[in-house]
C-alpha cells in the first residue's frame, strides 16, 4: 500500500535535507551542520586571518575553509561506520601508501608552500597544513576530529548513528573483535545521537546490511511523518534495546536500536 503524502509536507521536505554518509562521508555530512567559530583556524595559527601575508584570493579560500556556519537546509545526518575519533587503520603504512597512490593537484601545493614561506612565524607546526590525503586526516591523533566533536551544533539538527561490529565468529571475528574491521566501536559510537544501532557487519558491507537499510528507512519515514504531523513509530523486525559497547568483541545485540 502506497503511503499518502501531505502536499504541504512534501513542499516543506523540498527545503530540507537528510544527509546519509558512510565512513568518512559521515564526517563530511557532520561538517555541514557545525559552526566553526575560531576553533578550526586555531588548529593552524594563533594569529588572526587578517595578519596572514597573502593575496585576497588566497585569504578568501582560507576564510571559506576554516570559517563556516551550518547549512540551514540540513535537518538530519545519518552516519554509518563513521570514525568520529579516527581509525587505527590510518597508520604509518597506509598513509605512506596513500601518498604514493594519491597526489594533490599542483596549484594547492604551490599555494600551501607559499603561505608557509611568507608566514614562517604565524602557522603552528600543525599536521593540517601537511595533509596530502584523506587517510592522513583520519588518524586517531588528527587534531580536527576532537574539534569536530566539540564544535557547536544547531538545535534543529538530529544525528542518527549506525555502528558495524564484525561478529565474534572464526578467525576474522577474533582479529577484528570490537570493530567493523576498520573502525572500532569506541570511535564509531556517537554521544547524544537521537538514535544509534549496532549491526553485525564489516566496514565495507555495513551500509548494505538489511538492518542498516531498515534504520535509514525508519529515519526517513520518521522525518516525513513529523512533517505530516502524524508520526508513529513503525513496527520494525528487530528488537528495541539500548545500543551498548560490545562485550567480548561481539555486539551487545546483533540487532538493536536506541531512540530517544
Number of domains: 2
Largest sheet, in brief, is: 6 strands, mixed
- The ordered H/E elements are HEHHHEHHHHEHHEHEE
Query: Would you give the CATH topology of the largest domain?
Result: Rossmann fold
Could you say which structural class the secondary elements and strand pairing correspond to? alpha/beta
CATH architecture of the largest domain: 3-Layer(aba) Sandwich
CATH class of the largest domain: Alpha Beta
Shape: flat
Summarize model confidence as the mean pLDDT: 75
Radius of gyration: 21 Å
The residue fraction in helices comes out at 25-40%
Compact summary:
The chain has helices at residues 7-14, 24-31, 39-42, 56-66, 92-101, 106-118, 134-137, 144-150, 170-175, 185-188, 210-228; strands at residues 17-22, 74-80, 158-164, 195-199, 239-240, 256-259.
Mind explaining what this structure looks like?
There is one protein chain. This protein is an alpha/beta fold. The chain has 2 domains: 1-35 and 74-88 and 138-260, Rossmann fold (3-Layer(aba) Sandwich), CATH 3.40.50; 38-69 and 91-134, no CATH class. The chain has helices at residues 7-14, 24-31, 39-42, 56-66, 92-101, 106-118, 134-137, 144-150, 170-175, 185-188, 210-228, and strands at residues 17-22, 74-80, 158-164, 195-199, 239-240, 256-259. It has a 6-stranded mixed beta sheet with strand order 1-2-3-4-6-5, sandwiched between helices. The longest helix has 19 residues, at 210-228. The chain is flat.
Topology diagram in text:
Blueprint: H1 7-14, E1 17-22, H2 24-31, H3 39-42, H4 56-66, E2 74-80, H5 92-101, H6 106-118, H7 134-137, H8 144-150, E3 158-164, H9 170-175, H10 185-188, E4 195-199, H11 210-228, E5 239-240, E6 256-259
Parallel strand pairs: 1-2, 2-3, 3-4, 5-6
Antiparallel strand pairs: 4-6
Amino acid at each position: 500500500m502506497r503511503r499518502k503524502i501531505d502536499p504541504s509536507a512534501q513542499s516543506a521536505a523540498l527545503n530540507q535535507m537528510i544527509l546519509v554518509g558512510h565512513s568518512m562521508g559521515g564526517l563530511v555530512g557532520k561538517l555541514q551542520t557545525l559552526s566553526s567559530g575560531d576553533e578550526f583556524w586555531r588548529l593552524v595559527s594563533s594569529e588572526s586571518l587578517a595578519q596572514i601575508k597573502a593575496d585576497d584570493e588566497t585569504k578568501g579560500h582560507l576564510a571559506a575553509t576554516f570559517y563556516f556556519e551550518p547549512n540551514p537546509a540540513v535537518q538530519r545526518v545519518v552516519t554509518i561506520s563513521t570514525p568520529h575519533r579516527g581509525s587505527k587503520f590510518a597508520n604509518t603504512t597506509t598513509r605512506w601508501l596513500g601518498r604514493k597512490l594519491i597526489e594533490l593537484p599542483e596549484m594547492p601545493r604551490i599555494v600551501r608552500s607559499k603561505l608557509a614561506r611568507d608566514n614562517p612565524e604565524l602557522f603552528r607546526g600543525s599536521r593540517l597544513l601537511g595533509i596530502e590525503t584523506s587517510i592522513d586526516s583520519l588518524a586517531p591523533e588528527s587534531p580536527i576530529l576532537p574539534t569536530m566533536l566539540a564544535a557547536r551544533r544547531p538545535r534543529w539538527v538530529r544525528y542518527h548513528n549506525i555502528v558495524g561490529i564484525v561478529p565474534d565468529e572464526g578467525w576474522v571475528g577474533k582479529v577484528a573483535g570490537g570493530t567493523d574491521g576498520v573502525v572500532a566501536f569506541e570511535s564509531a559510537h556517537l554521544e547524544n545521537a537521537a538514535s544509534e544501532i549496532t549491526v553485525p557487519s564489516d566496514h565495507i558491507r555495513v551500509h548494505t546490511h538489511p538492518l542498516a537499510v531498515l534504520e535509514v528507512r525508519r529515519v526517513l519515514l520518521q522525518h516525513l511523518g513529523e512533517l505530516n504531523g502524524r508520526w508513529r513509530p513503525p513496527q520494525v523486525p528487530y528488537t528495541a534495546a539500548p545500543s551498548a559497547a560490545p562485550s567480548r568483541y561481539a555486539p551487545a545485540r546483533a540487532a538493536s536500536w536506541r531512540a530517544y
